[in-house]
Amino acid sequence: MGKKPDTQAPKATELAESAWVITLFCVVCGAGIGWLVTLLADWLVKLPWAPLEGPARLLTSIPEPGLTIGAVAVGALVGLLVGFIAVHESLSADISDSRVVLTIRDASQEFTHDEIALVFRDGKQLVLLGPNRLEIAREDCGLPWRRLADAFAEHGYSWADEDPHRHEFRRWVPGTPGLPEGADALLRARAEARNKQDDAEDARELRRELTRLGVVVRDENKRQYWRMPQQPGATH
């Protein structure tokens, strides 16, 4: 008998940042900062005048080696907490021939192959573009870009190293003409949300609302830029 053909679908590629590497890095950095604080405090108390002289004298009043051990331990503990937050905020990607799943903050977005016309890198962000040139996903990404590009290409997705539509973006200012009804108000709200550190999820939701209106948004520093892949009112 001849060999039975392999009809099994190619295995999906799963990419995720290493949780223990992120956490260890943050712990080491925190411990290092704790140690540097003791050196800084010792230097400040020797100056004729210095800012934070009171807290510095309070720190240096703790006898060694207790001061250094305590500062390093507190720094490491803070680093551990930051590491847990960083792991929670990190992006993972599950890529197969039929679909892509992006997971961040314990929430997943799933896209079929037909929904994705192009995948590209925009600075530190991973972007998925639909057939109508609307962005269907834009996420901060710490994954290795070469591995991402190879994984998407392996499973039949088009990849670009930069945004092919970047030249179409215009800077947003309040009252900008050419936007569909309601978009200017959403951009105002999003600008306010981006200025508040605890409103990141609100800014993400407002981006999705703008996408429903046919407006693509990208951020650069504290400025918002926009483009219109379609005319207002067109279906997408």
UniProtKB/TrEMBL annotation:
Domain Cysteinyl-tRNA ligase anticodon binding: 176-227
Keywords, ordered alphabetically: Coiled coil, Membrane, Transmembrane, Transmembrane helix
Pfam families given in the database record: bPH_10, CysS_C
Transmembrane spans: 20-45, 66-87
Domain YqeB PH: 19-160
Coiled-coil regions listed: 183-213
InterPro entries: CysS_C, PH_YqeB
Protein name per the record: Uncharacterized protein
Organism: Streptomyces avermitilis
